[in-house]
Design goal:
Blueprint lengths: L1 E5 L6 H4 L8 E4 L16 H6 L1 H12 L3 H15 L3 H19 L4 E3 L18 E3 L3 E5 L2 E6 L2 E2 L8 E2 L1 H11 L4 E4 L6 H4 E2 L4 E2 L4 H10 L3 E4 L9 E4 L2 E5 L3 H4 L3 E4 L1
Parallel strand pairs: 1-2, 2-3, 3-4, 6-9, 7-8, 9-12, 12-14
Antiparallel strand pairs: 1-15, 5-6, 10-11, 13-14
Helix pairs in contact: 3-4, 6-8
GO molecular function, one term: hydrolase activity
Protein name: Metallophosphoesterase
Pfam families: Metallophos (PF00149)
């Protein structure tokens, strides 16, 4: 068996269309939409609405840790646009999801990322797409568990949840051969982004599950340029499958 695994697609529909070639199935670990691109300030929903210059200013404030100023700056832009900001965002997200799910190969097993909007997925799913969150599925004789979303941070991305709710999903998955999450376990080398020069949030619940149940693999994304892309904890291989928007190619798992 061979499955291809992607995470942090962020609008990369051109490469996504071929991501399942040569594999029995595709696994997608979320973050499908592109709201703002820290590398290319002209790409994403935010610059589409407000221009690359405003996106650059917004990114600069956040990069400097001036989050209150960034929120105030963003609020002024939204006020100038008129109407309900949620309507503008939802319309743009729907447009991106329509393109992304049209390009998504099948069969595909998917879970949510921290920037995704789960309520909007259902209207775009096609035959052969299965969404799992706090659930398991058998693929080629192995049990795969899926835990979607992210934990609460100062960035306030759309699909962040409380630690307790996240831990409950990890517990619901239980003993599996392969645990698939959007965010990494709480291991510092897996959480530090060497380009952004900051730590992202990882899950203590996932780390505890690894120590207690020792799955063969734990697969995740979220950290785009990690200090370490893989570590071993006991018999468990923990693997960051890569920033798909940047790399344009999937991680391959064979057994």
């Amino acid at each position: 068996m061979r499955v291809h695994v992607v995470s942090d697609v962020h609008g990369r529909t051109d490469a996504l269309a071929g991501a399942g070639e040569g594999a029995d199935a595709l696994i997608c670990l979320g973050d499908l939409i592109l709201f703002i691109d820290y590398d290319d300030h002209a790409q994403g929903i935010f610059p589409d609405l407000f221009g690359a210059g405003n996106a650059e200013r917004f990114i600069g404030l956040r990069t400097e840790g001036r989050f209150d100023e960034a929120r105030d700056f963003s609020a002024r832009l939204w006020a100038g646009l008129g109407g309900d900001p949620r309507e503008h965002i939802e319309r743009a997200v729907r447009e991106q999801y329509a393109e992304i799910f049209a390009a998504m190969p099948a069969p595909a097993y998917l879970t949510y990322g921290n920037v995704d909007v789960p309520a909007l997925w259902g209207e775009h799913l096609r035959e052969g797409h299965r969404v799992l969150d706090g659930e398991t599925v058998e693929i080629g004789g192995l049990t795969f568990g899926f835990v979607g979303g992210g934990l609460r941070t100062r960035y306030r991305t759309p699909n962040e949840i409380d630690d307790e709710a996240y831990a409950a999903k990890v517990a619901a998955v239980g003993q599996v051969d392969v645990l698939c999450c959007h965010i990494p376990p709480a291991v510092p080398d897996l959480l530090y982004d060497v380009v952004a020069r900051r730590f992202e949030r990882g899950s203590e619940a996932v780390l505890e599950a690894i120590r207690e149940t020792q799955p063969r693999y734990v697969l995740f994304g979220h950290v785009h340029q990690p200090l370490a892309s893989r570590v071993r904890i006991g018999r468990t291989e923990c693997v960051n499958v890569g920033h798909f928007r940047g790399r344009g190619r999937p991680y391959a798992l064979e057994w």
